[in-house]
Design brief:
alpha/beta, 7-stranded mixed beta sheet, 16 strands, binds zinc ion, Metallo-B-lactamas, RibonucZ/Hydroxyglut_hydro, MBL fold metallo-hydrolase
Length: 245
């Protein structure tokens, strides 16, 4: 499978990147992992929006879901949509929440999306999907996509989590958030530091660790250096970068 970084700025869009959005494709099937603020713009430079076969939202924080709105507008009004309904997997309540983001009346979005609550496991096109609840203030699910014997795990947002490490066990690629700078007094069960992202990759025994979700106000070089203290080969993602998994 192939991973393309559409947006990787943590906690909101930054000057150099949209918020979280990752395009994963295999055998001509394309799934978006998150569709955060600003990501729909960047997506159009990388893929025809009509070619997106499914959307997976880890959780309903704005930096992971807000660009569902321009995705709907595009499908309704561009004249370029084939009008097939797109499966949208998200925590329960997404249909109501995203409808309210679209307009104050909470108009249904079911002409564009086929909503499904996040499953523990499922089949999605050529992918086997497995999920795990993360350590985050709202319902958030990390996801493992497996195809042709290769696995990609995306943490979504999480603090240190045994469940996420277990989900990532032996994966080829772990795409791990590292939003917190390493300092005292951090709130628990919210985000990983760079070091904690590295520790998660090492504990899971993954082949490759990709560090992401660094906010615009945090030094990405410091996050990478901290991740490398526990996982020496850790890499920092960038918008537009592609990875064969
Ligand atoms: Zn986030
Ligand atoms: Zn979040």
């Amino acid at each position: 499978m192939r991973l393309t970084v559409v947006g990787c700025s943590g906690s909101g869009p930054g000057p150099a990147s949209a918020a979280s959005c990752y395009l994963v494709e295999h055998d001509g099937f394309r799934v978006l992992l998150d569709l955060g603020s600003g990501a729909f713009g960047a997506l159009q430079a990388l893929a025809d929006p009509d070619s997106i076969d499914a959307v997976y939202l880890s959780h309903l924080h704005a930096d992971h879901c807000l660009d569902v709105v321009p995705f709907v507008v595009w499908h309704r009004y561009s004249g370029r949509s084939s009008r097939r309904r797109v499966p949208l997997i998200a925590p329960a309540g997404a249909e109501r929440r995203l409808g309210l983001v679209y307009d104050e009346g909470g108009a249904p979005l079911t002409d564009v999306f086929d909503f499904a609550a996040t499953p523990v496991s499922a089949v999605l096109g050529p992918f086997t999907v497995q999920t795990a609840r993360t350590a985050h203030p709202v319902e958030c699910h990390a996801v493992r996509l497996t195809a042709h014997g290769s696995s990609l795990v995306y943490t979504g947002d999480t603090g240190p989590s045994r469940a996420v490490v277990d989900l990532a066990h032996g994966a080829d690629v772990l795409l791990a958030e590292a939003a917190h700078p390493d300092r005292d007094g951090l709130p628990p069960d919210l985000h990983l530091t760079g070091r904690q992202a590295g520790e998660a990759g090492a504990a899971a025994g993954v082949r490759r660790l990709l560090v992401t979700h660094v906010p615009a106000w945090v030094d990405p070089g410091a996050q990478l250096a901290a991740a490398r203290t526990a996982f020496p080969g850790a890499e920092l993602v960038a918008p537009g970068a592609t990875y064969d998994v």
